[in-house]
Fold these 4 entries.
Entry 1:
Amino acid sequence: MKNLKSKIAAQMYSVRKEFAEDAEGTLRRLQKIGFEAVQLDGMRGNDPLKVAALLKKYNLQVAGMHIKHERFFNDVDGIIEEAYLFGCKTIFDKYIDDDEQNEQGYRKTKATLLEVAQKLSSLGFRVGLHNPEYDYNHLVDGRKVIDFITDPVNGICIYPEPDTYWMTIAGENPVESIKKYSGRAPILHLKDYQSGYDLNDMGNNLIEVGSGEIDMKSVVQWGEENGVEYYCVEQDYSRIGIFESLKIGFDYLVSLEREV
């Protein structure tokens, strides 16, 4: 079993601009903070072979890969190639395209992800869905989007990737909501929240992990008891500098190791 520090990953969406401008400098700074893993979120214009070499250079493991929605429909072979390049077979549909955030789109998404999962399961792949964002509370067959898509069919399961921030925005208590994913959520996204702002005001209501109102200690405690392999620190925006924000979240989670 990994110690907690090695299970904390930086979600690369957080540093999307920095990674596009200076891939090596970005990975170097993440390693300097103390991260031992990252969750990939596209190449941002970088050569995948170069990125793989840099990850090896800085001894960063790949804690899952976020893949663009349409690639599950038209580029499965490309996904497989990247997965082998980066040594990671846990892949997530990162975001359901806006024009498919409707019942027909959700049903189509589930059918396609199940088809991909069935095709790749024999190769050891896990196919998942990142926590839906503003469409979290939409219902299909009386089930919220993430639950509808991740409900198993004929023994095949799409893995959920819960996100503490989006659960909170949806009016749920993350500590309670994640309990239904016991044993089938290998990765959690950790983002913190502070009240007092409009729910759509992510620039203000999103705050560094451990600095807001979400009970992150209880979330991690649950994770340690229920098979979570990585905790991804994600900071979509920062008021103090993205690397400083990620460092605050990383240091906070490391401090929990003695408590969980």
Entry 2:
Amino acid sequence: MTVLPMGGPGVPGRPEAGRAMTAMPVVGLVCGVVATAVAHGAHALGAGTVISGLMGIAAVLALTRGMHVDALADTADGLGSYAGPDRALEIMRSGSVGPMGAAVLVLVLLAEVAALGALVASGAWLAPIAAFVLSRCLPVVQLRRGVPAASATGFGAMVAGSQSRAAVVAVGLISAAAGAGLAGSGWTATLSAGTWWTPVVGAAIGLAFYAAAAGFARHAVRRLGGVNGDVLGAGIEAGAAAALVAAVILA
């Protein structure tokens, strides 16, 4: 799920793909560290809040080949068309970006850049990293047993229904922990000040995002007949933006 060279030769099968999706929080940790470090480095050089956020998000886009932003635009166009399953999937596979996809993409990227820049300007490290970890937890609940693939081919067909109940529960707990981490360095300050509820609210937000991802998967099943790679990527990108914004509010 990044450009980093991992694994051996050949095409991975369903078991390997399923394990890779279970390990997505680790990918979020790598992306979060890269984005936060680049943004802090730019800010230390005097780049300013907006440019620092932009550099951090650009680093993640390079690390992930921009696959999730492409998925977000495709999903917005497909679901926004209100067409039937076959036509909606055709729109998502077309490779072009329509007005709905372009608008959603711009808004989400603006939110990510502004939120990451604000967090870095405040000196936060933990909060933005936690936001990226949380965003990469979301696909696990969307790939729980019983959720079908939207088509018989493609990445969705390889990973749909691959996550056991134990994996879904375990990653749900990681989501709660990452949500608590959205409070960032405010953890110690809020506890000492008696406002213990800030990390608790963050944990609740993490679980709420996890539940929302499950709901989005159910919506995809109703509209498309199942989930695919675009649905998963859209959830990751939108989740990252929402988590970064939540971190700004909590911090």
Entry 3:
Amino acid sequence: MLHRRARDGRRPMLAGALLLALLTGCGSAPAPPAAAPEQPPAQARVVTADLPEATTFGDLSEAPADPAPQQPTDGTVLRVHDELALYDAPDGEPFARLPATQLENPTWVPVVETRGQWSRVLLPSRPTGATGWVRPEPGQAEPARSPYEVEVDVDAMRMVVRESGREIGSWTVGVGGEGTPTPRGRTYMMAAIEETVTTFSPVILPLGTHSQTLTSYGGGPGTVALHGWPDSSVFGTASSDGCVRVPDDALDLLTTLPLGTLVLLR
């Protein structure tokens, strides 16, 4: 299962298990152009070490909020090859930098809005629903498209996976308890971590969202994830610390989806 290739050719890298203890407490704690391409404005190339990193460990209070947190996207994702400056608006002010890796995985982020050559992307940092605008130089980032979408109806405790709008699987799942609810909104599959320390799930799939009531899982940033669970009695219950617990066959499918795939938590 851990070595199956994603259907669009992008197989998630499996990060080391040492990250897991900090992240998931839900378990147990063509031809040359005729002319040179237009260059982005100078400010779109600004990346400085003074800007905070947009990672699951960050808290970007200046990040603009997702304007449509329950809306699907067209599947466009961006692979970051070189660190990008993040702006609060097209031609706006830089507030953070997006690195080329997340949790030892390549950075893939969903595009939720475009304006000319600017793209608005979802970020993995707090607050939940953080976004930023990027305008990459040639070679800095690569656009692609994921035909997949994962939707979790938190109240109904039901997860559906779709490919090009067609349902390819649905399951009853476990969600966050009353005091530690699963956060709502649109997020994405940020990374894949192979679990070798504990046994509750062979793979953990951290999302770009966080617990709204817990600031930490086991000393980490309270990152919410999709993962398996050995006891099927949790499916159909609200008993986790905010993560979504899924059956084995659901996890088998989820691990084949490309990073950056949109996840709607409704």
Entry 4:
Amino acid sequence: MALGPWLLRHGLGGARDILRVHSPEPTAAFSRRDTRRLGYERAAHALRQQGFEPVVRPQGGSLAAYHRGSVVVDHVHREPPETFDPVERFQRFARLHAAILAGLGADARIGPVPGEYCPGDYSINAAGTKIVGSAQRVTRDGWLFSTVIQVTGTEVLRGALTAAYGELGYDFDPSTVGTLEDVLPGLTVADVTAAVLTAYDVTGPPVLLPATTLATT
């Protein structure tokens, strides 16, 4: 969770754009707003009971969960923004990610589903469930745009989010939690990862950061 903001602050060589695509261990990403809710500690405990590690992310929004069945796309752009226009980025990336999913065969639509977790105008849904969420952070160094594509594990995600949102007291409809697997049986994390890399026109070998990068900087 700390690597995206670290890359935004410190960069990677002289790269202006850095793309990080990964599928993490079960993680419950709270926003700072969530931590001020009366039920935050109980929600964090409920998520640990479900096998999810609670963390606090720098981006806005509200609680989102992801795991090995998710594809997380962090796009870091290291250049001071000329204008603060987060809506344009939300629109642009929503169109890009919806096109990626459409290319895989999903009827992906941009817009919120009533009662969804971490609600946003530029969520992506399919068959009435939320399958993609995004958030961003803008600093003097540039911006970090993070997107979570839920590929498999609907029941696991639904159980964790239902327990936590009940404690946080947000309006939430568990039936809005979904994954691509629900509409495209057999689709894998590897399939989605490959489609993302193709869409971003990524070529060449990945860069592996040493485990001590964050601890020693």
